[in-house]
Structures are given as C-alpha cells and as structure tokens.
UniProtKB/TrEMBL annotation:
This is 2Fe-2S iron-sulfur cluster-binding protein. Residues 230-286 form the 4Fe-4S Mo/W bis-MGD-type domain. PROSITE patterns: 2FE2S_FER_2 (PS51085), 4FE4S_FER_1 (PS00198), 4FE4S_FER_2 (PS51379), 4FE4S_MOW_BIS_MGD (PS51669), MOLYBDOPTERIN_PROK_1 (PS00551). Transmembrane segments: none annotated. Residues 143-162, 188-216 form the 4Fe-4S ferredoxin-type domain. Gene3D superfamilies: 3.10.20.740, 3.30.70.20, ADC-like domains. PANTHER family: HYDROGENASE SUBUNIT, PHOTOSYSTEM I IRON-SULFUR CENTER-RELATED. The keyword Metal-binding applies. Keywords: 4Fe-4S, Iron, Iron-sulfur, Metal-binding. Residues 11-89 form the 2Fe-2S ferredoxin-type domain. CDD domains: fer2.
C-alpha cells in the first residue's frame, strides 16, 4: 500500500477572480489560483522551482484597491481579494511588454509567445530594427550547451538556479548596468574558464532558449529539430545511488536531450553533469 504524505494542512482562503468565487491554500500566489481556476495568465520569468523575480511583468493583473497592476507570480492571495485578469488595462500592459520584449530580443524559440502576441495584437516591429538590444553570435565554447544571448530577456532564472537557490556554484551573474546589463560568467570569460560545473540546471529553467543543449542547437540549425516527433520516457539515473529521475527526449530513436521532472522530490528538476549530459553510452552502437 502506498502512503501519500499529506504535509502540513493549510487554511483555505476565499476570494474572487473575474467575479467568480475561488478557494486557494494559504500561501498561494494569484498565479497559482488562476491556473487552478483555469484562467490563462501568461508569464515568462516565473518558474515552479524558483522564487519569483517579477522580471518580465507579463503576468500583471488588477487587484481591487491596488493603485498599480500587480505581478500575479509573486503577489500572495488574500481573503476577500478581488482579482481581474482580463481588464483593458491589464491586457494593454501585457501587449506593451510583449512588444518591447519581442522587438529587443529573439523570441522565436520561446514557447507560447507567438500565441500571446497574436492574442494581445502586439506589434513588435513598430519599434523598428534599432530596438534590438543585442547583436552577437551564439557562444559555443564547449560541447554540452550553447549560450545565445540574443534570446535572453534578463529574467535572472539562470542566475538563481546557479546561485543560492539550487546549485550554489555562482558561475553566472549579471554584468553591466542599465541598457548594458547582460548575463555573463565572471570577468565575461569563456565558460570553460569559469566556475561552471556543467550541471545544466540553468538550461532547465531558461524560458526562451537562450541556453540550450548543443544537440538541440545543432539540430535546429540543421532544420531537423521536431518536438512533435519526440517521445519522453522517465527513468532513473544509473550513475549513482541518489535516485535522480531522468526524462529522456527521443527523436528518430536517438536521445536528443535529458531533463528531470520538476515535481520529483529528489531532483526538483535539477541534475548533475552526468545525469543531464552523460547519455551517449546508451546509444553508442560502435
């Protein structure tokens, strides 16, 4: 018999979302409650394994009594709160944010962004080509993953995953200030000269594809990357006795990348270099 731990009971809070009464456990964010209620609130910088950073501002909603729009990803639900997700003010704000982001960086590999741009009738091209924040080639200085900062929206998720929230390696940080701010390793050196341990946990949380597997990058460049043709199989890593879960992404009978379930109590989506990148022996047919 499987025993499921119930955890510490949490009081249910009652409030309204778009005029409908909802209940959510104490400590839930507005975004948590919206998703539980089936409300589609877009977000880019929110990650289910990281503390919210409020960086992208795509998830803003109106809360009765609040002077400004509030980020749903970090604002905690409160009893009696009145939340409105689809007001003209909130939709206009999301439209502008999407326009600014899509005009300044490449969002071509960001999931759902094309749908949101269409839904909110955003027109990123109205700012012209001079709006691009960066214009640099992808950084390919190792055989495991690629850094394409033309796709970076400065959500800081990679910094948090590499820092005190998970890996505690602190190889990644923000360099520069203002419009010159960018993600970099110490002294902006090649990744091979940094403190990086190649766990790939920064790739796991990156929402835009600015950080990607070298295998995925090469296949996209060759036009062979096809997520619709991929299967996912979750198994247990065979390298040590920790018991990390691996999700193998397979296309044309080849493993093309490895992730880990975010709800797994052992890994929470995180892996080491062996678990995430050491899969070649499985398909070595020589």
């Amino acid at each position: 018999m499987t025993v499921i731990p119930l955890g510490v009971p949490r009081r249910l809070l009652e409030f309204t979302i778009d005029g409908e009464s909802v209940r959510a456990p104490e400590g839930s964010t507005i975004l948590d409650a919206c998703r539980a209620a089936g409300k589609d609130v877009p977000t880019l910088c929110q990650g289910d394994t990281l503390t919210p950073k409020n960086a992208c501002r795509v998830c803003v909603v109106e809360v009765e009594g609040s002077r400004t729009l509030v980020p749903a990803c970090s604002r905690k639900a409160e009893p009696g709160m009145e939340v409105r997700t689809g007001t003209e003010r909130a939709r206009h704000s999301r439209k502008i944010v999407l326009e600014l982001l899509a005009s300044s960086v490449d969002l071509s590999t960001t999931p759902q962004v094309a749908e949101w741009i269409k839904e909110y009738e955003a027109k990123p091209d109205r700012f012209g080509p001079d709006a691009a924040r960066l214009n640099e080639e992808p950084k390919i200085d190792n055989d495991l993953y690629v850094r394409d900062y033309d796709k970076c929206i400065l959500c800081y998720k990679c910094v948090d995953a590499c820092g005190d929230q998970w890996q505690n390696t602190f190889a990644i940080s923000v360099a520069g200030r203002g419009f010159d701010a960018r993600i970099a390793v110490e002294h902006d050196a090649p990744l091979t000269d940094s403190a990086c341990v190649y766990c790939g946990n920064c790739i796991e949380v990156c929402p835009t594809g600015a950080l990607s597997f070298k295998s995925e990058f090469d296949m996209r460049a060759a036009g062979t990357w096809d997520e619709s043709a991929q299967t996912e199989t979750t198994t247990v890593c065979a390298y040590c006795g920790v018991g990390c879960n691996l999700t193998l992404h397979v296309q044309d009978n080849e493993i093309v990348k490895v992730t880990s379930p975010h709800d797994n109590p052992v890994t929470h989506g995180n892996l080491c270099i062996k678990g995430r990148f050491g899969y070649q022996h499985v398909q070595n047919r020589d």
